[in-house]
Amino acid sequence: MSYSDRIKEVIDGSDVTIFMKGTPAFVMCGNSDRALQALRRAGAPVTAVDVLPDPAIRQELSAISGWPTIPQVFVKGELVGGADIVEELEASGELEETLREKLGEDYSASRDEHTVALA
Amino acid sequence: MSTQPLRDLLERAFPDATELDVIDRTGGGDHFQVVVTSPSLAGLSLVEQHRRVYEVLSAPLADGTIHELRIKTKGAA
């Protein structure tokens, strides 16, 4: 079975996607947590995908994004980066700026957090 | 492993770096923090800058030598 189509669907169809180890309710990795917390501080509406249920999810994701590590954060289909970049952009205010630009001024009003299961 | 092999790879890839550091974050030889400031990264987005570092370290990343990598890059000199 291939995950690529579903992965692209989620990336393109969601405002903000984070591919992470675990779920927002039960984060399984410190770096995934760092990225998630930065997104929360910025008030981002987050769609989370857990890559742990099947190693193929991570392999196919990295093939699509050209990014080797987890987490990976996308805004409107575009890779923003991993935990280091997301933290850096949040600290400088650029993350909120990008979110306003791409999602609209009131992006955090629709703020919600949900999880999509691929496997 | 020690930080030296990683430092060698980065120094070869970024000979003009004004800041280049590899830190073993946990002392266990597999969680590393890499810092690179280089004019050759100027004009690139953070995603592109980090991609350059991932490419340089692709071998130790692929074989599991690097279990976790934190990256801090800057384009200016």
Give short descriptive properties of this protein:
heterodimer, A: 119 residues, alpha/beta, Glutaredoxin, 5-stranded mixed β-sheet, two-stranded antiparallel sheet, 5 helices, 7 strands, globular, B: 77 residues, alpha+beta, GMP Synthetase, Chain A, domain 3, 3-stranded mixed β-sheet, 3 helices
Written account of the structure:
The complex is a heterodimer of chains A (119) and B (77). Chain A is globular and about 35 Å long. Chain A is built from five helices and seven strands, in the order H-E-E-E-H-E-H-E-E-H-H-E. Chain A starts with a helix and ends with a strand. In chain A, the strands form two sheets. In chain A, strands 6-5-1-4-7 form a five-stranded mixed sheet, sandwiched between helices. Chain A has one domain (4-116): Glutaredoxin. In chain A, a hairpin with a 2-residue loop joins strand 5 and strand 6 (78-81). Helices cover 45% and strands 22% of the residues of chain A. Chain A has 119 residues and is an alpha/beta fold. The longest helix of chain A has 12 residues, at 30-41. Chain B is α+β, with helices and mostly antiparallel strands. Chain B has one domain: 2-Layer Sandwich (GMP Synthetase, Chain A, domain 3). Helices cover 34% and strands 26% of the residues of chain B. Chain B is built from three helices and three strands; from the N terminus they run H-E-E-H-H-E. A three-stranded mixed sheet of chain B has the order 1-2-3. In chain B, a hairpin with a 6-residue loop joins strand 1 and strand 2. The interface between A and B is medium-sized, with 14 and 12 residues.
